[in-house]
Amino acid sequence: MTEKTKAPAASPARSRAKAEPPPPTFGPGRIAGATLIVLALVGVALLMIELTRFFMLVFAAIVLGAIFDAIASWLCAKTRIGRGIALALSVAGIVAIFAGAFMLFGSQLAREVDTIREQIPPALQGLEAFLNRYGLGEQVRDLAAVGSDDISRALQQAGGYALAAGSGIADFVLVLVAAIFLASDPATYRRGLLLLLPARAEETAALAMGDAGRGLKGWMMGQAVSSLVVAALTWAGLALLGVPAAGGLGLIAGLLDVIPMIGPIIAGIPAVLLAFTVSPMTALWTLVLFLLIQQLQGNFLQPMIQKQAVDVPPAVLLFAVVAAGILFGFLGVLLAAPLTVVVYVLVQRVYVKTLLGKDIKIAGKE
Description:
This protein has about 375 residues and is an all-alpha fold.
């Protein structure tokens, strides 16, 4: 009688070895694919870096377009005229204001800017002589010499600055035309942007754009009032003190008021230096004037802007200006405040409220 041989049972280890898939092999194809992905990511990053100025110009066009849209909407609400006519009136009004200011004060401001450029080197020397009387001249002598050399070198490079100014004018025209197109039909661009997003993100994105738009418009209205007040007070105060080029310095102070924290300091430096050409006491009173205006701006005008727009903490604004200057240069510094307002609102809406699910009041929300 033959015995049936029983096949030995497979061990658990051998069964697991047969069930597990073989480890992936990194062949030439997978390595080439991974290399292409890495190169594509690096290329996109480099392209984004190269296009930073372009992105800032786009954002500048959005800001200016929001200004045109706000004025046109106000005209439509007050006069019941058509949207196209209201937009044309808003663009023509702003252009007329700048053109009229240039025609009325352009030649005077040009002379005062020339005065600023010519008198700053003697002002530095006067400051050095004043400090020398109190034994502090040695510490600032090298700094004053460097400043004088830098200004002299800058004046010798007027041709380069003329080319830069020409490029700035071309950028301004580009931004102006783009802003008119954006303000003429903002709903079209809004819909186009929403179509690029997944369906589940459209509602949040629409709410975020609405919040950012309201905050941005409120900031622009408050900032316009603040800049006008700062320019007028600086002009009048410096004229009463007898500081040369009071009008030009007032204009500089008003324009630099859009730069949080740092703008008033930058505007005060040439004013104090020019005041030294009159007398040290005039320079002291000029410093007091700028401190008073700064207190007014910080305690009254800035809260008014934040009430109209977004209550961004001062430290956040300061670091935003520094970061924007490092990343985008002077254009980034100029647009740091509105860019911070938009980013702040988007973080609140998209990250804190939507992703984290926290119940907060969105800044700029009606």
